[in-house]
Amino acid sequence: MAKDLSISVLMDFYGQLLTDKRYDALDMYYNQDLSLGEIAGELGISRQGVRDNIKHAEAQLAQLEEKLGLAKRFSDILADIDEMEKIISGMEKNSETEQLLETVRHIASKI
User: Fold this and answer.
1) How far is CA 36 from CA 21, 58, 86, 93, 111, in A?
2) Whole-Å CA distances, 84 to 72, 73, 96
3) What are the mean pLDDT values of the chain's consecutive 10-residue runs (111 residues total)?
């Protein structure tokens, strides 16, 4: 199974909506980097059971993100903040302050 590390981000947003067993399996697999066999031993289930829990949890997280979009929105906000920081840094070097401030105001209104 190839690891999609964006799952760790989705776990931060939606992990508490998963069952404990699914959350634990994902946490051990993605955050603790345990193998399926190691997780199976910890949870007292088969390797196939671990794989099924991980696959179902991944699908559930993807579905939640598709419907709610919290991780995408958060990423967009971080990008907007980075852009604002660049503009503000440029204000010290640029005499066109009013235009830069208007851009910052526009970005801030989106957030």
Assistant:
1) 14, 15, 44, 54, 41
2) 18, 16, 15
3) 80 96 96 96 96 97 96 92 80 67 78 74
